[in-house]
Amino acid sequence: MNVAFIGAHPDDEMFCLGTLLLCRRRGDRLFLICATNGDKGISDDPDFPHAECARLRDREMREVARAIDAEYQCLGEPDEALYDTWDNRLKMIEAIRHTQADLLFTHFSQDYNLDHSTTSALVFQGALLSQIASVRTEKPGPAACAADLLCGPRPGIWLRGDSFRGD
Ligand SMILES: [Zn+2]
């Protein structure tokens, strides 16, 4: 099974790292996706260069991904300035299509942080639209709409198909 965590910031994977490790243990293929580059993440130093912060956090995320044998991708939007735009929806759709994820984890839709709730909206919309072939990205969508895209038992989880066994 392909399992993806899509978060707003580098380090948000910590919200479900234990679950991801359990998935990894049973042989699932893992993907980590960040919507933003986390360039405001050094919050106690107003003089820390944003570009340097983004490089540092990218390096940290790549180390996390390597440690859990996951594929990592950053959509590159600026930290604390993520918006639900058509361009960002297309980026998210492309990322989701690339993972061919059977199971997606993301933030709760009513999260306290606007980047988190915007990421949640982009993931939910992206999961839906990634199944629609007429929504074109570099990686083509399926030939027909999949009728088996289901909302999970609580906000923040999408299941695709009937491959999820819950074990
Ligand atoms: Zn975050």
Question: What do these coordinates show?
Answer:
- The chain is α/β, with parallel strands linked by helices.
- It has one domain: LmbE-like (Rossmann fold).
- It has helices at 17-25, 50-67, 86-99, 114-129, and strands at 2-7, 29-36, 70-77, 103-105, 149-151, 157-160.
- The protein has a 6-stranded mixed beta sheet, sandwiched between helices.
- Helix 3 crosses helix 4.
- The model is unreliable at 143-155 and 161-167 (pLDDT under 50).
CATH class: Alpha Beta
* Order of neighbouring strands in the sheet with most strands: 3-2-1-4-6-5
Uncertain parts: 143-155, 161-167
User: Class by helix and strand content?
Assistant: alpha/beta
Instruction: Give me the CATH fold name.
Output: Rossmann fold
Name the beta content range. Answer: 15-25%
Question: What does the largest sheet look like?
Answer: 6 strands, mixed
Shape: globular
Number of beta-strand segments: 6
- How far the N terminus sits from the C terminus, by CA atoms, comes to 12 Å
* CATH architecture type: 3-Layer(aba) Sandwich
User: Are any ligands bound, and if so which?
Assistant: zinc ion
Q: CATH homologous superfamily name?
A: LmbE-like
What is the chain-wise order of helices and strands? EHEHEHEHEE
Integer count of domains: 1
Question: Number of helical segments?
Answer: 4
**Helix content bin:** 25-40%
Average pLDDT across residues?
A: 86
Q: Nearest-angstrom radius of gyration?
A: 16 Å
